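ok so I'm stuck.
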Amino acid sequence: MKQQWYGKTCRLGMVGGGQLGRMFIQSAIDFDVHVHALDPDPNAPCKDIAHSFTVGSLNDFDTLYAFGSDKDVITVEIENVCIEALEKLENEGIRVFPQPRVLRIIRDKGIQKEFYKTHGIPTADFQLYTNAEEITVAKISAPFVQKLRTGGYDGRGVQLIKRAQDFTKLFHAPSVVEQLIPFQKELSVIVARNEKGEIRAFPAVECEFHPEANLVEFLFCPSEISSDIESAAHELAQKVIRELEMVGILAVEMFLTQDAQLLVNEIAPRPHNSGHHTIECNITSQFEQHLRAVLGLPLGETDIVRAGAMINLLGAEGFEGPVIYDGLEKALALPGVHPHLYGKSTTKPFRKMGHVTISGTEIDDVKSTARTVSNLIFVKS
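replied:
not stuck anymore, here's the structure
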């Protein structure tokens, strides 16, 4: 008899208990799947809605192995975990998606870039360095982008070196140095693949980044690109997940260059900030799609139902403590506004506290409302 990988017979382990896990669980409830979460923070966003919640390190072999040993399927909401423990679990017959070998490629930006190069995936020119001194000796001309090979997240571990004086702030750790790309737009395509090799991509979104926090502040969908660029972006995202032979959902961030070429910037093997609007705006959300993929189910349709925008709610500078969402009530009076608050009780500067989706029939109206909402809500303490 074929194993049923959904419903109450399935024990699904989520490594990480943050907001991505929280929204994943909300989709899993529709499938009556019991999600068990592991996170080092006893007050993580998943703690009250997971079927069970375990407090423990994601990077400790024994902790992660013990957590996963009685699960049918394991997935992650963060790349920086103990891959050795996941490999042992996989070798013992537990289904781990995305696969540990994929996590090894993606969590090290140097290995990730070499993967693109080996598999003919267009990306910015790059060099790998072990420390700041090597970069200085190499006499690289600014401007360029320096990215820590491991450990970066939510814009941390990435910096723009604009001029020679900025060399004093170089990261003193193994890093990737990339050519600075003059681009028209930053795009993201969320793509999913199941074990049968079925692949589906969501329509491309256009991203606007916060100038200081270096993470997405706004996204809009549909993006203002030609149908040819849209098709090329889909093909590129599908090539990446196919070459990885990955199971699960993958965010493929891209640059659209001034000469209309697409270059892969980075990828994330999990639900992603640039796919949050799909909850309200697409037939299938990115979270449901990830669930379908890791459970071996047919993938859902990805068509747009309504035009959408997404705004990240970031903790305001100068505030740290119990959170207050000032202006939320005024924002809710506007059409198409739907908040997602992540259940984090305390705020601090640039911390992701939630997001707001704005949906409507016309993208220009949605964008206008999004700008208004951005000026209305202030996350403080």
